[in-house]
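Hey everyone, long-time lurker, first post.

I ran two proteins through the pipeline my lab uses and got sequence/structure pairs for each. Pasting them in order. The first:
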Amino acid sequence: MLQSLLMNKPCHLQNSTRNDEMFDRQSPVPMYYQIEQYIEQLIENKNLQAGDQIPSERELTDHFHVSRMTVRQAIMELVNAGILVRIKGKGTFVANHYKIEKNLLGLDGFSEDMIRRGMTPGSQILDFSRTLPSSNVSKHLGLKTSEEVFEIKRVRLANDEPIGIEISYLPVRVFPELTEKKADPSLYQYIEKECGLKIHHAEQSLEASLVTNEEAEILKIPNGSPLLLIERCSFLESGQPIEQTLSLFRADRYKFTITLPRG
């Protein structure tokens, strides 16, 4: 199996099938991580596709002259990331859904992020209304008791697949001309391009949650499935808060990463 995959190997492997040219054994990057990256490249280049079985641990061990423990660690890292799935008695396969990886340090809108990944973003507005906010939303946006907000509830799509639900609140005072049509598909584009405002930074929290029956139906996932719950407040350079958003992303399709510098 492995030899047939190497016949259709990624471009940086096209000139050789020698093990020592595929991996840098002098690199400080661990061998298991290099194997992990190699398997991910096979998936990204469509040499391995959803549902395909990957080479066995023994094949990878013999071909790349590494220990079985090294190969197993690489595979388990990909299993834990949701990229591979192990089926007892059968082997390891490419998961049906490849997780979308989002860096927590970036402040991009959903549509901007999907386009950069080569995916087609989409949204479906479930509700657009003008209302008095909850005390929590009012506090985050620094509103007076009588101030109203636009409440926008949307399903976020990636290549026509529902992967999240977003509920956004924007002060009517700041965006008096906002309409349902203008809010779709990208609020950030509306804020920055049409309103001429520059979003400077955001404060964000992330926690685990479980899907409700209503959310499960919208996202087309089983009841009780795990979600990633993100609460974010966006600010202008002046420090004025202009958007409060609650997002619920499918944990089987989304993961968040962050680079941590050592102090």
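...and the second, right after it:
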Amino acid sequence: MSELILLKPSKLLEEKILEYKQEYLDFEETSINGSCGLYHYNNFDEWLETVLSIEKDKLRNDVHASTFFSVRKSDNRIIGTIQLRHFLTDELEKHGGHIGYGVRPTERKKGYGKQQLLLALEIAKDMKIPKVMITCDKDNIASSQTAISCGGILTDENIYKDKEQQIYWITLC
């Protein structure tokens, strides 16, 4: 049974989300995967408006996407972020995929990546997405192991933005 639940971003979570972001800054990381660009926003309300509009009305990279925070049930701590694109464009099918995810630096290597990915795959099934694509940098062993542990099959490797990238597909139905 999962220790995590997925919650959509909201004003009620603002303090916890900003604390989550701060940890990435403290660890001098330059992005927060699966967070719809949280790292680049200085105004929480602007970020939240963007996240909510991308899910419903506004397209980003020509697709709708849902963003979630994985929250540990025992203490309500945000553990990670995960974004699910509702469909893929030709470009996203080459370099992007359906799902992007990240786990906060102090909670890595504890199995949370797999737990949050499994929860997102259930949402994808409910959305009737037949199979999900996940990409990761080839040197990101944790991310590739997470994809594989959830049924991911490596189907391709390529170069994107001067980095070796792997493409995994997970069949859902």
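Reply from user beta_strand_b:
Welcome! Quick read of the second one: The mean pLDDT is 94. Strands lie at 4-7, 65-72, 78-85, 99-103, 131-137, 153-160, 163-171.
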